Amino acid sequence: MSGFKARDKEFVAGTYGRFDLELVSGKGAVFCDVNGKEYIDLGSGIGVNIFGVADDEWVAAVTAQLSKLQHASNLYYTEPCTLLAEALCKKSGMSKVFFSNSGAEANECAIKAARKYYSDAHGGAEGEIITLKNSFHGRTVTTLSATGQDVFHKNFGPFTDGFRFVTAGDCEELENAVGDKTAAVMIEMIQGEGGVNPLSQEFVDRIKKLAEKHGFLIISDEVQTGNGRTGKYFACEHYGLKPDIISTAKGLGGGLPIGATLFSSKTASVLGASDHGSTFGGNPVAAAGALSIVNRVDDALLCEVTAKGEYIRKSLEGAKGVKSIAGMGLMLGIETEGDAKRIVAECINRGVVALTAKTKVRLLPPLNITYDQLDKALNILKEVIANEALA
Ligand SMILES: *Cc1c(COP(=O)(O)O)cnc(C)c1O
Known about the structure:
This protein has two domains: about 5-55 and about 300-390, Aspartate Aminotransferase, domain 1; about 70-295, Aspartate Aminotransferase, domain 2, CATH 3.40.640.10. The chain has twelve helices and 17 strands. It has helices at about 5-10, 45, 55-65, 80-90, 105-120, 140-145, 170-175, 200-215, 285-295, 300-315, 340-350, 370-390, and strands spanning about 25, 30-35, 40, 95-100, 130, 165, 180-185, 190, 195-200, 215-220, 245-250, 260-265, 320-330, 330-335, 350-355, 355, 360-365. The strands form four sheets. The protein has a seven-stranded mixed beta sheet with strand order 4-12-11-10-7-5-6, with helices on both faces. The protein has a four-stranded mixed beta sheet with strand order 1-2-3-15. Helix 3 (about 55-65) runs antiparallel to helix 9 (about 285-295), helix 4 (about 80-90) packs parallel to helix 9 and helix 10 (about 300-315) packs parallel to helix 12 (about 370-390). The longest helix is centred in the C-terminal third of the chain and has 20 residues, at about 370-390. It is globular, with a radius of gyration of 21 Å. Pyridoxal-5'-phosphate binds next to helix 5.
């Protein structure tokens, strides 16, 4: 097969700084490029291919649904979306689910619900949502506005009002920011795009305390951390936090676009008929694939994720050029002496696909990656990290 990079550059809008890699197929944690070269995947397409490429069970679930009913619209009931909502509620202890197509949309729905909850409770008044500096919540104008990074707050104004940012981990700044106007605090338990930074238990406990005092909602953005990635179904479980709203996407669909916003009993009825909607949301094919994924993220798999995460840490700790390792389960960020972007580019040359997050090398491997694949990939990664430290 001939390459398609040049035509991509000609016809696809130039919003991405792509790595020099033309992918065509794969199986499990292995990608195959246009020349037939194989790569071990430590990125899962940014945490999406949770059971890797072309996983047999997922493909079977998707194709069975594809030949039955591919779409019906939300004017009617379809079974995959019903079963998926039930499965997500049972896994999480939440009460109701709204389906969309992406992380940004899942967050948009969470934001709308928090605003309406506040408005209902305060005679139509408009509340404020507090998010964290260095967060990432999406690319729509409103989720960009919610994202606590100045680099995202230019060129596309006017932005959406009603967001306020506090420093992750700064309890005093948080305490000063919340009040009667606060509708919600929205957090990533581990900031993903921001550099794989887990929140401290103390900070999360303070959010909980302040929520009880002021009556605001807690929204956990689990777009990246959800669906088993960190060794719990949702990362908030590590902190003993029961959010009022959880948003998720990425790994949920196993490779097809789907987003979900989960509501606790407290927020379950805040959005009523015609308050929100989506043409594609809860699409039967995406939902059937997602259901097969959710059903497989059980305690045994979660233990495996934790064990593999520990295994990677042990392998990298003290390695030449590795400064520190942060994260949980199979969501890890490695601070390196050499430049992360160069390390990832060189890993691709050597047959390993990893990610960056700010100044770190980020790993989000498929949850079913084998130890043999991990060993091979980690050996290359360590060599490259060591070489770049010398460079
Ligand atoms: C990726 C991500 C989003 C945005 O998801 P899209 O599917 O790209 O819209 C939002 N929040 C977090 C925490 C993410 O990691």
